[in-house]
Amino acid sequence: MDEEYKKEQFETLKIKSSVAKKFRRFSRAMSKSQSISLLLMLEFFEDNGISPTESMGPKMQTLENLIKKRISGVIAILKDIEKGQTKPTVAMMQSLFQEAEPKKQTLILEKKNTEEKQPKYQERNQQDL
Prior knowledge:
The protein is built from 4 helices and no strands. The protein has about 130 residues and is mostly helical. Helix 1 crosses helix 2. The longest helix has about 40 residues, at about 55-95. InterPro entries: BfmA-like_N.
């Protein structure tokens, strides 16, 4: 027996024999005394504000919908973080740590200037000779 209720007296309840057998099986399955099993059931109903005659269907569905909405909100927040923070940061880090250096491209103006100067210089040298 439970220590807290050791000094209390037993009371009798009139319960049908089939219900009593089922309750005893339930109590053994929980490995609790019959008094504690009944007390736990009563506290469960009181704490959760439900009645044994009520159907739990609508309450469970509303709870499920609430959880789905919150999960959707969390997913939206994570996607926003990914778009706004993670992807740009990864792109910057990749650009910083790329091993290949970009090829140096000469300016188009520089090429024209060097090509034009060479023939003129060669023409002058030939005239001087």
